[in-house]
Amino acid sequence: MKTILVIVALMLPAVAPAQGVDPIRCWWQSSAGAITIGESFDVVLTCAVIETASMQVVADESRLGVASIQMAPFEILGGSHPADAHRDQRRFFQYHYQLRLIGADAIGRDVNVPALQIPYRVHSRVGAAAALEGRDLTYLMPALPIKVLSLVPREAIDIRDGSDASLGAVESLRFRSSLFQILAVAFGAMAAVMAVMALMPLTRGTGKAGVVESDRLPDRAVARHAARALTEAQAAATGDGWTDEAVAKALASVRVIAALAICQPVSEKILAATAPVPEGRLAVSHGWLRTRRASVSSPVTAADLAKSLTHRQHLAGLQSALTDLTAALYRQTPSRDAVTLNEAVRHGLEVADDLQRDRSAWSRLRQGFPLRRGYGGRVGGQGAS
Q: Mean per-residue pLDDT for 130-145?
């Protein structure tokens, strides 16, 4: 707006403060000569007043602001007041208004922006005397006519606007719709593949866990073979004495029995039908139609039994049996007393018999709940935890 004021000031010639020169001059400017109902347009009021050392024109601008001026029937939407501009002996001020007209009666007619009355005074000074304030004067700003256009031609029979959608626009919308459908299907397929890939490890893990659990040998079968191995070791010791092989076999058997008694895991490794049994492990076979053969062992020690001791009569006997058999096999100077070792075997056989009875199918049906890996039966009546 300041640039417009400077341009206007340059267009006006410099005038001397003499008689016959208007002290104030104003004019309208409109952004549109014809408008439609509801259309906003701009109207600018520009005024030039004389301002010299001897004479100064002071206009009353309090009624020209957007908040105070009235321009009925036009509605004021907004406006602004840029800074004043000066050129030679004139000062330029300007007010910008944004207007619109809403009223069906004005269609096809000329509507005037109302005339304005701008009060002003002329202050004059002669030499060093005080400024003299002139009387109140009024500058009459004429009205500005604005043409209001009709919305439809005179011959129109329908005032509704027709659709601007062409066949090309319809085809473009169909293409976009098809493209979005293809993208949706593609992204949905990608999401499904990613979901399947995320669930596969869980499925494999669950399947493997179920296979391992179902392929484990029953505790009853493990206890039966451990008892058989103990009996064989004792029978061999009867004839040849407690050799290293007999003591090792008895120790492995008692360790497996102790692990079953205190709910410790038993290591199982699948064995082929003709494969030799590794040292320190027992061979266990189970099943009639589909026989499974595996080697079992346990790292249970007497200290483990001491921690899980729940019944002194049997578990203490197992602890003593493990201690005696371990000493007979691994001590630097083995002490292989037949009575002591036979007593250790007896304790192992008693616990093995209890485990077989406790883990039998009849016992499981009688108890009414699935078998737990623990020692029950006569030893306290409950499995060790």
A: 89
Two tokens, residue 314: 């049997």
| Alpha helix stretches (DSSP H) within the chain | 2-11, 167-215, 219-240, 244-261, 302-307, 315-330, 338-358, 361-367
Identify the burial level of 245 via C-beta atoms within 10 angstroms of its C-beta, where 0-12 means exposed, 13-18 middle and 19 or more buried.
Answer: middle
Domain locations along the chain: 2-148, 219-367
What's the rounded Cα separation, in Å, for the pair 305 and 314? 11
**Using one digit for the tens of pLDDT, what is the confidence trace for 14-49?**
444 444 578 999 999 999 989 988 889 999 999 999
What's the whole-model pTM score?
A: 0.39
229 has a pLDDT exceeding 60: yes
Residues counted in the chain: 385
Give the integer Cα–Cα distance in Å for 312 and 340.
18
Asked whether the CA dihedral 341, 346, 349, 350 is positive or negative, the reply is: negative
Contact criterion met (CB below 8 Å) for 284 and 292 = no
